[in-house]
Amino acid sequence: MTQTTLNPSISEITPIAVGTLAPDFTLPDQDKNNFHLADYKGKKPVALFFYPLDWSPTCSKENVCFTQDLSRFSQYAEVVAISVDSTWSHKAWAEKMGLKHRLLSDMHRVAVKAYGFYHPAGNISQRGTVLIGKDGKVAWVKVESDIAKERNYSEVEDHLKKLS
Predict the structure, then answer these.
(1) Choosing from 27, 46, 59, 112, which is the catalytic residue?
(2) To the nearest 10°, the Cα dihedral for 85, 88, 91, 94?
(3) What topology does CATH give the domain 10-163?
């Protein structure tokens, strides 16, 4: 049996730079409704919360926090969480955890790689946040150096306030 070696490009593992035009994408959510990033350009900022996997302890805790504090973030931007899990996993997880925000399925790693959050060792996403202004440009990026560590919600909120 032949083992395939993953050789990601440097852009797939290097977080996108602030000021860059945000790469457009369309991904399905847990209800199989498409989220198209371009629909928000000129209308509303977008907060992309990349996370490794449904059902994992840190990701579960984070996403419950996003749902509980959704108004804290959604008053400033459209909030979506993105992982490499399937729409079916997202649906089951959202129902089990009581999640109310959109969970985008990036099984082909399109957005994960376009935004430089690919984690080749696990074939998953790094834990990171990208805030996109109404102008469609990346306004703020943060990657957690420890994939098992939760992001700082107050820090995210502070940067979201600057987008309004």
Answers:
(1) 59
(2) -40
(3) Glutaredoxin (3.40.30)
